[in-house]
Structure formats: C-alpha cells, structure tokens
Amino acid sequence: MVAVAGILVILAVIIAINVPPLLRKKLKKELWIFFIFLLFGTILSIAQAMNIKIPNPLDWITAIFKPLSDMVEKLLT
C-alpha cells in the first residue's frame, strides 16, 4: 500500500509541474493526451505495485506471427 501512495504522490508532482504551462498556453488537446497517457501509466504502475499479472504484449505478437513463421519455415525446408 505504501507503493501505491508513493505512486500517487509522484503523480501529483508530475501534474503540478506539467499542467500549469499547458493551461497557460491553452493547449487543450495536449492536456487531454497528457492526462490519457498519465492515467494509463498510473494504472499500470499501481497494478504492478499490487502484484497484479499484466500480460506481456510480446506474447500476443508471438501468438499472431507464430503460424506464419511455421508456414514460411516449412516452405523453405
């Protein structure tokens, strides 16, 4: 639980540093993108801190391309 609290403190510091310049410059789209990426990163960080299994994207890529790789290997051998 201490790790989650630490993540939230760091989140607050990041927001305090990066949001005011975006608001001053009236960069609304950039602010939305900033918050979307920050939310995604925060969720992943909290999940990892709570030892929740996060699927590896490389496993998905392997599952997609493995049949193609096997087919090409059969053609070449």
Molecular structure report:
It comes from Domibacillus aminovorans. The chain crosses the membrane at residues 6-24, 31-50. This protein has 77 residues and is mostly helical. It has one domain. The chain contains 3 helices and no strands. It has helices spanning 2-24, 28-49, 57-76. Helix 1 runs antiparallel to helix 2. The relative contact order is 0.09.
The coarse overall form would be elongated
What count of structural domains?
1
Radius of gyration, rounded?
Answer: 20 Å
Strand fraction = under 5%
- Any low-confidence stretches, pLDDT <50, length ≥5? none
Average pLDDT, all residues: 95
Based on secondary structure, the structural category is mainly alpha
Concise synopsis of the structure shown:
This is Holin. It comes from Domibacillus aminovorans. The chain is an all-alpha fold and 77 residues long.
Features:
elongated, mainly alpha, 77 residues
Write the layout of secondary structure elements.
Elements: H1 2-24, H2 28-49, H3 57-76
Helix pairs in contact: 1-2
